[in-house]
Amino acid sequence: MLATHEELLREFREFSASCSSTESLMQRICERLHEKMTRYNWVGFYLVDPAAENILNVGPYAGSFTPNTRIPMNTGLCGAAASTGQTVVVDDVAKDPRYLAGSPLVKSEIVVPIFVKKRLAAELDIESYFTAAFPQAEQEFAEACTNVVANYLATAQN
């Protein structure tokens, strides 16, 4: 793992031990990833809608465009990650028919589902203006970031 990855993960873990809410943790992660990771042009969380479990609502995010605010679980790459329970990495969104455009500048995307007690709670969505921005090391880093959120949520819900 890159030094920047380790530094950010340490920061996120420390912040999660004292932050006041899930929203503040997610906002910190979005802002710091957007700021420190030059190819992370849009970083955001989608949360399962408590009133409609088949809908994802945009949560905290950082980036240069306004995202899709509500995404059905069967739509887009966020929907694919939600329905399979697996991380989705697309190196070139123009070649993937599942891609739901947020900005014409986006070239690649990663979506990592976040489970709490075996139930989908949220997703981390990162979009890049560069193709193939999420090789294995970036995927592992994004998944480690979501583990910080999952652990916080599991503790908060007890």
Top-tier CATH class: Alpha Beta
Report the portion of residues in β strands. Answer: 25-35%
CATH superfamily caption: GAF domain
Q: What is the string of SSEs from the N terminus onward?
A: HHEEEHEEEH
Return the average pLDDT rounded to an integer. 94
Which architecture would the CATH scheme give at its second level? 2-Layer Sandwich
> What is the total tally of β strands?
6
The helical percent reads 25-40%
Q: Going across the major beta sheet, what is the strand order?
A: 3-2-1-6-5-4
Key attributes of the depicted protein:
single chain; 6-stranded antiparallel sheet; 158 residues; alpha+beta; globular; Beta-Lactamase; 6 strands
Description:
It is a single chain. Helix content is 37%, strand content 28%. The protein is α+β, with helices and mostly antiparallel strands. The protein has a single domain (3-156), classed as Beta-Lactamase, CATH 3.30.450.40. It has a six-stranded antiparallel β-sheet with strand order 3-2-1-6-5-4, with helices on both faces. A hairpin with a 6-residue loop joins strand 2 and strand 3 (70-72). Helix 1 (3-16) packs antiparallel against helix 2 (22-36), helix 1 (3-16) runs parallel beside helix 4 and helix 2 (22-36) packs antiparallel against helix 4. The protein starts with a helix and ends with a helix.
Secondary-structure blueprint of this entry?
Blueprint: H1 3-16, H2 22-36, E1 42-49, E2 52-63, E3 70-72, H3 76-84, E4 88-90, E5 108-116, E6 119-128, H4 136-156
Antiparallel strand pairs: 1-2, 1-6, 2-3, 4-5, 5-6
Helix pairs in contact: 1-2, 1-4, 2-4
